[in-house]
Amino acid sequence: VEFKRREHEITVLTAVPDYPGGKFHEGYGVFKKNREMYYGINIYRAPIIPRGSGSNVRLALNYFSLLIGSIYTSMFILKNKIDIIFVFGVSPVTIGIPAIIIKKIKKIPICFWVLDLWPESVSTAGNLKSDLIPKFLNPIVKYIYKHADKIFVSSKGFINSIAGKGVNRNKIEFYPQWAEPIFQPVELEKYLLGSIPKDSFKIMFAGNIG
Predict the structure, then answer these.
(1) If we measure between CA atoms, which residue out of 35, 57, 61 comes closest to residue 46?
(2) Ramachandran area for residue 6 (φ above 0: left; ψ -120 to 50: alpha; else beta)
(3) What is the distance between the alpha carbons of residues 164 and 175, in angstroms, rounded to a whole number?
(4) Pair 22, 52: CB distance under 8 Å
(5) Does residue 210 belong to any structural domain of this protein?
(6) Domain containing 92 — which CATH number?
(7) Which residue windows are coiled coil (predicted)?
(8) Residue-wise pLDDT tens digits, 139-166
(9) Is the pLDDT of residue 57 over 50?
(10) Residue 8 and residue 149: Cα distance in Å, rounded?
(11) pTM to 2 decimal places
């Protein structure tokens, strides 16, 4: 929306929404509301298999369907004039593949903003006992990073991992996330203190910091 406010023409390729509940949001479906406008921004939604309960198998199907659905949907975007591709790099990293296809056809640069580090996040979140899947994913990740013209990272701790995949450090830049103004002011009593027992053992996950 901020890009649009600054008079840029924006086209978004994303999935049919199914997060966080694991099922399509009301009014959406595999081939329902695949194209819409939001504050003057063209949004193309790729058909996917919902993540359901979030089991490893269901999540894998969700990620694979997003890859295939995004490649299919990207073909409808090619008719547009495109100057640059900006990839919002949350999971799965394979969202970079349709971006590479568009890049090769339109001969334009890609900026990839890495917010989830792959394959490390798969190993951790999936609690994998074997390193077979990370070994399979590693060359895919290298391929995607290789074709990015600029890589932004949300944490400086990502830099060594990405550089270790053969990426020139000169094209990696620290670009942290920020909080939108809609979250201000923060009402601590409402969101935190009132629902946490004072004598409980507390563990907080704060995402990528540092």
Answers:
(1) 35
(2) alpha
(3) 19
(4) yes
(5) no
(6) 3.40.50.2000
(7) none
(8) 999 999 999 999 999 989 899 999 999 9
(9) yes
(10) 20
(11) 0.82
Classify the phi-psi angles of 162: left when phi > 0, otherwise alpha if psi is within -120 to 50, otherwise beta.
Answer: alpha
Predicted confidence at residue 150, as pLDDT, reads 97
Q: Which residue has the tokens 């009301």?
A: 26
* Contact between 208 and 154 (Cβ < 8 Å): yes
Number of separate domains in the chain: 1
Q: What is the pLDDT of residues 106-146, one digit of tens each?
A: 999 999 999 988 888 877 766 666 788 888 899 999 999 99
Instruction: Tell me the pLDDT tens digit for each residue of 88-104.
Output: 988 899 999 999 999 99
Answer yes or no: is pLDDT of 30 > 50.
yes
**Position of tokens 């591709």?**
85
Query: Rounded distance, CA 16 to CA 5, Å?
Result: 25
For residue 139, being part of any structural domain is answered with yes
